[in-house]
């Protein structure tokens, strides 16, 4: 807080007012409150400016003990009011150094706020699963009030759909890079490459289930329209890359991508069961075969699909 300015013209109102910074406790409380960029915080302290050597230099601190310019008592002539003595005050506006705005007014600040909310949703979904993410949790993770979230997104589904878009872009680029420059890939080689890039993206695999189940169903027509066209534009170059690296036709490559998405969603969920199912499989070994190992299962199914389409093409 050493670089925080002292202001002489405070705002007309504040969300929080902290009285007293002595002993650092007030400063700590004010700083923690001010970590939320959506609120304004006023820290009020008695005394004069602290920008003097006797305050900023540790070896001169003892000079403060009898210095009325720094240690203030009641102002001369002030009378107690309801057993409280009026003190003259200076105003210090506390805001975290990395956030110098309260609300996102400029385009840059609005873009930053959107990024923060998306990152918050990503962190929560990666940690606890897409199913558990709520709008309130996203707001809390991002350090804003839930009402501030609705200035940028209408719902949690819209935020999570945005994460799915990012997931498609990241996966398509990773798979394209993996098969770039290769020619005549076998069905097994291609299936392994597809599976490996998905295993590296657990959040995307989790999102694929929820995209068709509820995310697309709970957003506006305009948003789902944008989503579909964005994903189509992302997958186009990927399908071209697969066609160029294999013996599959463009039509067969399109079917492969559709099948990959359709298979990944349920297989991923089955391979990552809820705690109750994990306990069941552990306590009842005869049921353990129901559990699915994601990577080898998806690889085997995609290999069979590619073999079948290649044979049919011949």
SSE arrangement:
Blueprint: E1 6-7, E2 16-19, H1 25-34, E3 41-46, H2 53-56, E4 89-93, H3 107-128, H4 135-142, H5 146-149, H6 156-179, H7 187-199, H8 202-215, H9 221-245, H10 250-271, H11 275-283, H12 294-313
Parallel strand pairs: 2-3
Antiparallel strand pairs: 1-4, 3-4
Helix pairs in contact: 3-4, 3-6, 6-7, 6-8, 6-9, 7-12, 8-10, 9-10, 10-12
Describe this structure in words.
About 55% of the residues lie in helices and about 5% in strands. α3 (about 105-130) packs across α4 (about 135-140). It is mostly helical and about 325 residues long. The radius of gyration is 30 Å and the shape is elongated. The longest helix has 25 residues, at about 220-245. A four-stranded mixed β-sheet has the order 1-4-3-2, covered by helices on one side. The relative contact order is 0.08. It folds into three domains: about 5-95, no CATH class; about 105-155, Arc Repressor Mutant, subunit A (Orthogonal Bundle); about 155-314, Tetracycline Repressor, domain 2 (Orthogonal Bundle), CATH 1.10.357.10. It is built from twelve helices and four strands, in the order ββαβαβαααααααααα.
């Amino acid at each position: 807080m050493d670089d925080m300015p002292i202001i002489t013209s405070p705002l007309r109102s504040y969300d929080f007012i902290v009285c007293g910074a002595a002993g650092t406790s007030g400063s700590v409380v004010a700083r923690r409150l001010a970590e939320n960029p959506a609120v304004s915080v006023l820290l009020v302290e008695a005394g004069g400016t602290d920008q003097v050597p006797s305050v900023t230099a540790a070896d001169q601190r003892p000079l403060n003990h009898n210095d009325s310019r720094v240690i203030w008592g009641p102002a001369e002539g002030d009378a107690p009011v309801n057993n409280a003595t009026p003190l003259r005050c200076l105003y210090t506006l506390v805001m975290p150094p990395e956030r110098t705005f309260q609300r996102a007014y400029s385009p840059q600040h609005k873009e930053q706020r959107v990024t923060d909310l998306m990152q918050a949703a990503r962190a929560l979904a990666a940690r606890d699963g897409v199913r558990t993410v709520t709008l309130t949790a996203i707001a809390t993770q991002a350090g804003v009030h839930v009402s501030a979230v609705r200035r940028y997104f209408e719902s949690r589904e819209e935020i999570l759909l945005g994460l799915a878009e990012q997931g498609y872009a990241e996966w398509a680029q990773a798979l394209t890079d993996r098969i770039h420059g290769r020619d005549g890939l076998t069905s097994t080689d291609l299936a392994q490459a597809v599976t490996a890039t998905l295993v590296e993206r657990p959040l995307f695999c989790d999102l694929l289930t929820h995209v068709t189940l509820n995310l697309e169903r709970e957003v506006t027509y305009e948003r789902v329209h944008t989503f579909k066209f964005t994903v189509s534009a992302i997958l186009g170059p990927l399908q071209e890359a697969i066609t160029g690296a294999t013996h599959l036709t463009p039509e067969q490559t399109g079917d492969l991508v559709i099948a990959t998405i359709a298979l990944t969603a349920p297989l991923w969920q089955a391979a990552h069961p809820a705690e109750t199912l994990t306990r069941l499989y552990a306590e009842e070994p005869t049921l353990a075969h129901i559990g699915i190992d994601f990577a080898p299962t998806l690889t085997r199914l995609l290999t069979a699909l590619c073999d079948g389409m290649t044979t049919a093409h011949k």
